[in-house]
Amino acid sequence: MAERSKALRSGRSPLLWAWDYTEKLTKAFGSEDFVFDLLLLGMGPDGHTCSLFPGHPLLDETKLKVAPITDSPKFPPERITLTFPTINKARNCLFAICGSSKAEMIQRILKDNDESVPARRVKPHSGSLYWVLDQHSAKNL
């Protein structure tokens, strides 16, 4: 089976990793304007998805499809992430959420429509958004 993930090597700029991954996606899709059929997403207890964390400047990134992050509040500090413009072009986005530690954020997203929660900003423009929750993460709904 082909390798599906790779750890960032220390000593190489996350910006270079982001450019490299963007090029690989462009090549794989055969277009610079690539669109995912399905993104399977998770969410942290703070409401982050991918590596788009609450209050982080990357929440407002509009030009890059894949962005570097060098100050992640979660280990490891250096990583790359899809940006909201890339995520929201997907035909389908599916969140799979488990655990009571996510219940407050699920309530803020699905019941209160709290736009300050990063995962709430996933809104496919021409696609569908699905939430698959266990009973613990859905306990406040």
UniProtKB/TrEMBL annotation:
Residues 17-131 form the Glucosamine/galactosamine-6-phosphate isomerase domain. Pfam families: Glucosamine_iso (PF01182). Belongs to the glucosamine/galactosamine-6-phosphate isomerase family. 6-phosphogluconolactonase subfamily. GO terms for biological process: carbohydrate metabolic process; pentose-phosphate shunt. This is Glucosamine/galactosamine-6-phosphate isomerase domain-containing protein. It comes from the Eukaryota. Gene3D superfamilies: 3.40.50.1360. GO terms for molecular function: 6-phosphogluconolactonase activity. InterPro entries: 6-phosphogluconolactonase_DevB, 6PGL, Glc/Gal-6P_isomerase, NagB/RpiA_transferase-like.
